[in-house]
Write a structure and sequence with these properties.
The chain has 609 residues and is mainly α. It has 34 helices and 2 strands. The relative contact order is 0.03.
Amino acid sequence: MLQLKQIQAQMTCTALITHTFPVSRVLAFCALADAGDIHYANLIFTRIQNPNTYMWNTMIRGYSKAQLHATAFSYFCRMVLQRVEMDSRSFVFALKTSGLVGESVHCVIWKMGFGSDLVVRNGLVHYYAESGFVSHARKVFDESPVRDVVTWTTMIDGYAGRGCLFEAVELFDEMVLSGVEPNEVTLIAVLSVCSSKGNIGMGRSVYEYMRKKNVSCGLNLLNALVDMYVKCGCLAAAREVFDDMKVSDVFTWTSMVNGYAKCGELDAARRFFDDMPERNVVSWSAMIAGFAQNNQPNEAVKLFHDMVESGLAPVENSLVSVLSACGQLSCLDLGRWIHQYYVDGIRIQFSVILGNALIDMYAKCGSLTSATELFNQMSEKNLVSWNTMIAGYAAHGHAVQALTLFDQMKSTDMKPDHITFLAVLSACSHGGLVSEGREHFKSMIRDYGIEPKVETYSCMIDLLGRIGLLEEAYELINRMPMEPNVSAWGALLNSCKIHGNVELAKLSAQKLLDLDPEDSGAYVLLANLCGIKQRWVDVRNVRSLMKERGVQKNPGHSLIEVQGQIHEFFAADKSHPRSEELCRVLNEIYMFSKSEFSLRKQFDELLCI
């Protein structure tokens, strides 16, 4: 700005500033350049005796660029009141700053005879589509006597942005048939629709069209193509496009990392991540989420620490993923530190999504008090918030609190979904509340029209089986409208073990092993039950079957967090660097407990003499 002011001073001395073109250049720099100053532009504008249309438009654009939309729109209103001559761009710029009063601008457009101007009509389609009035946008589109590629693209993009995926694809087909050649922006919009809809058929058709028409593909279009294939689950096709790309950027690489991670191919995802020439916070977040969502929480936590050490500040998605990992690991210290450092420290904007992730983490780590406090403090709650808190109570056996919270949720006019009833039935199961469970199971169909899924039936089977209603549980399995899955038969088998029903346990185990022959838990449960009932022949048969099928019993393991670091131990595992020291301390604790018990027994015997 200093150099501009020096130029302006020179122009003033030479009277050049009084000429329209030079002063318009100075005004444009002040209003539109990144190094400009819109307020200084206003000072210049007020000293121009008869500003022309270009200068008025420049001021509207400048204030719009500075996010001062009300001021920008006031300049348009002054143009109308002062009867300043306008051009098509005046209306386009005004529409971008008009907010909810765009229809007033539309009226002025008709009054001033710009209703058939193509540029203005394109601006109207864009305004209505961006404001959410898609039907209004389509009306303007349909009434347009002439449509260019911008008209079609704007309408397609408007449909895509509002989730009207079928309409967007249909309009693209009409565009191609009309003879208008789609440009790169059009193709990106259509590919984004295919990504959202998971419509791989349409996506491939678009790609074939691009090849047939020999479309010149820029980086953004190729990135959209890779993203479409990734989101439609066609990683081989995405990889083919990726390998053929002469130039790629961080978005391209991140799409591939995200695709492999979501498909569970974590080794491939990690190779892409490690090979990335450049990483941003989105790349790190994608890899962290991949580990967290594929039962590798340790790796997710390690990668989060690496990201922080690299100097990148995590975003909401990063924290949500690592909080999920903390919940899986019962890593309360790290989860609490994230809450205090990033949320309480106002280093990241608190949101409902982040609040839900924190509640889930606290509940899974056993800190129900912290989960409840946070839940009660949240000024805004969505259905996930209620579901998470109800499920937290249910998981810890607080059935009454879970059902009370469910009643509170219903009083807020929040409608429950399948997940809500799953949490409620789980609470009833843990609390042995059979009548309440039966009523809620009926209510989900009768009052809310929610058809139970296989998980819901499994929860109901568990509820009935836990209190010994094994025959009723077995009848429910046979009445299921879908094929019972592993969780349904597993719930019945576990109930048979609790109540000692060997015959029904054998049937359940057979069904379970038909579905998953590698499930060592089913063999172990059945063998243990037969052992309790002293049916040693059956025990030998089960163990022989395990041996024949090559099934190995999964070793028991435990986790403990010490000073933010997770230590994992397996049964009979001596790989930990301090295993000898740990065994010695455990033996000392055991001997101390044993001697204390012996002394207490002797003391009790002396008291009885």
